[in-house]
From TrEMBL:
Coiled coil: none
Species of provenance: Variovorax gossypii
Pfam families: 4HBT_3 (PF13622), 4HBT_3C (PF20789)
Residue stretches making up the Acyl-CoA thioesterase-like C-terminal domain: 140-274
Domain Acyl-CoA thioesterase-like N-terminal HotDog span(s) in chain numbering: 29-113
SUPFAM superfamilies, sorted: Thioesterase/thiol ester dehydrase-isomerase
Protein name in the entry: Thioesterase family protein
Length: 277
């Protein structure tokens, strides 16, 4: 009997009888991140609610997730609503809530999703995959720190811009290049691609080699492939590249790219991150 993958357990949501598009779920200790779930898992949950909606059209092309508050351990509710459906695109809003101290729902996460019925057209990539060593030649990153369980769910092999070994303010760049995939093999799909788009630690840590408080406020991920291209990736490695762009008065943005081993650009993302001095 095949056991359920930890990521699929974390994404397990149930249709509710309250209204169409309403789901319930439970947080997963396997993807915990200090004070709440790993943000990539939360993004994947928002996408999952849309993909399991009976009225969904096509496949995802864009996902924006806004983290209003940390999700506490326990039960949560998700509402996915189609606000506009055109011939080829569909626009969604998603809300994740938890019961507050008074029992009333408290908003933790808002999101928007755009899905589309793609049609075959001319296509090309102007963002080639960087040159890189083969993943099996790169050392795997060691187990993550206490309280950051989600890191252990991934196999990460950074070959440039790893987490600083010394927090001494000596760094002067913010780029990381890394091979990554699920630690327990799992075929790539849109949900796991959304999660992996948020796997890069805050660029301010690398840029300054200083461990300051930081957290994602909002992330947008664009999907550049369909189910057939994801199936070709299977359980293989993804090459990830992330870099900061502008650090200013408590917020910075960082961009990320994910390619398959064959050099296909699968997804790009950009996020705005809060940090303290």
């Amino acid at each position: 009997m095949t056991s359920t993958h930890p990521f699929d357990k974390a994404l397990k949501i149930h249709h509710s009888d309250i209204r169409v598009g309403h789901f319930t779920g439970m947080t997963s200790p396997d993807y915990w991140n200090m004070v709440g779930p790993f943000g990539g898992t939360t993004a994947a949950l928002a996408l999952q609610a849309v993909m399991q909606h009976p009225d969904v059209l096509g496949t995802p092309i864009a996902l924006t997730v806004n983290y209003a508050a940390a999700i506490e351990a326990g039960a949560f509710d998700i509402q996915a609503t189609a606000v506009r459906t055109n011939r080829s695109t569909q626009h969604w809003t998603v809300q994740i809530t938890q019961a507050g101290a008074s029992g009333a729902p408290s908003m933790t996460t808002t999101a928007t999703v755009v899905t589309a019925a793609r049609r075959e057209t001319w296509g090309e990539s102007d963002m080639p995959m960087p040159e890189s060593p083969r993943p099996e030649t790169v050392d795997r990153m060691s187990i993550g720190p206490s309280g950051v369980a989600w890191i252990n769910q991934y196999e990460m092999r950074p070959f440039s811009g790893g987490i600083p070994s010394k927090w001494d303010g000596s760094q002067h760049h913010s780029e990381t290049r890394i091979w990554l995939r699920d630690a327990q093999p799992r075929p790539l799909d849109f949900a796991s691609l959304a999660a992996m788009s948020d796997m890069f630690y805050p660029r301010v840590w690398l840029r300054r080699a200083k461990h300051v408080p930081a957290g994602t406020v909002s992330i947008t991920t664009y999907f550049h492939v369909g189910p057939e291209q994801l199936a070709e990736v299977g359980t293989g490695y993804l090459l990830g590249r992330a870099a900061g762009q502008q650090f200013f008065n408590g917020f910075f943005d960082q961009t990320a790219h994910l390619w398959s081993e064959k050099g296909v650009l699968l997804a790009t993302s950009n996020q705005i991150v809060y940090y303290k001095e």
